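Thread: sanity check for a docking pose with pyridoxal-5'-phosphate

Original post by kr_44:
Hi all, I'm comparing my docking run against an independent structure prediction. Below are the sequence and the ligand SMILES. Could someone generate the full complex and paste the structure tokens? I mainly care about where the ligand ends up relative to the chain.
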Amino acid sequence: MSYSYRDFIFGELQELEQQNLVRRIPPVESGADKWLQYDGKQLLNLASNNYLGLAGRPELKQAAIDATEKYGTSSGASRLISGNYSLFDELEQELREFKKQEDALVVGSGFTANLMILSTLADRHTVVFSDKLNHASIVDGVRLSGAKHVRYRHNDMEHLAALMEKHADAPRKLLVTDSVFSMDGDLAELTAIVELCERYQVLSVIDEAHAAGVMGKGRGLAAELGLSDRIDVHMGTFSKGLGSYGAYVAGKSDIIEFLRNKGRPFIFSTALPPATIGANLAAVRLVRSEPELGERLGVMAGDVRRFLQQLDLDTGPSQTAIIPVILGENEAALKARDMLMEQGIYVGAVRPPTVPQGTARLRISLRADLTDADLSHFKQAVSRMVDSLD
Ligand SMILES: *Cc1c(COP(=O)(O)O)cnc(C)c1O
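Reply from moderator J.T.:
Ran it for you. Here is the predicted complex with pyridoxal-5'-phosphate included:
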């Protein structure tokens, strides 16, 4: 390695160390299960996006095994070359019906899907309106597109309206937003957003990563609010509530046809493996037959938020099963996390730059497979933690 690179990398790492911001992969085992092992200790897992517990369901496991038996472990090529198989077509058909959209395309991951959607639908003649708290993959997708990146203050509709007015004459305009924000667990102001997009003729793109499988009987927030027909591009992932891996884009057939033809992260990447597509198909079918799973999670989240607020904890604007407990300093968040871990509970401690300076937090993600006993164990642990923080 050249000296200049060695100096650069050493300097950067040293800075992270000094600010207490070095990221380390935790020594966990079975991170999607309700119970995980951390350094050999068994902990209740409230740090996973497996919101419905689907990743452990026999229906998904069996579907993955069956698909592997039939097709092997790899698809062997991009979909457009020889990587396709009929499970893909079944899955996309299932998605068209489920999402009530003309067409759907399955792609590698949520991150890849956002790179594809934004770099294909936007270019340097496009203005992209994007919520300041949108996911990193959206930010990178906009950068890759070369579009003019216009970020509005989180969920601030007056700010968005002013920016749309300012850019009213741009040749092409696109808006992109998470539907559920991953660090605060709050919801996009979708009704207002859709109205603004219609008024200013802006193409609307929604990322339902944290809502897919969970909200709107599994169809997402847009469906829950009755806005599906008024949003142009619906993206969602199989990697969170749906308990598997990969992502989909659904919408009008001309848009999906365009992505299939021009979306480089789709064209130049190997199709997802059979096990994954088998599990994805089983997940969508399961959610369609058990829509009450997501509803149970919503009720549980309301109860837990009320409990935390009664302890004077700051749960921010959360409205979902993602519940932050905002503590401020990095050390406070790490200490709280460790105290819960000592009592058998595993939650994430999220620090800048993932969240703004001074808002370090615990991030609790609830899951539909928690029992009443699990929840009282959790509440007791939090009460003890609060007592010893004081
Ligand atoms: C997790 C997430 C992604 C990325 O999805 P992966 O399937 O994990 O790559 C994209 N957008 C949002 C809003 C997410 O939360």
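The chain is about 45% helix and 15% strand. Hope that helps with the comparison, let us know if your pose agrees.
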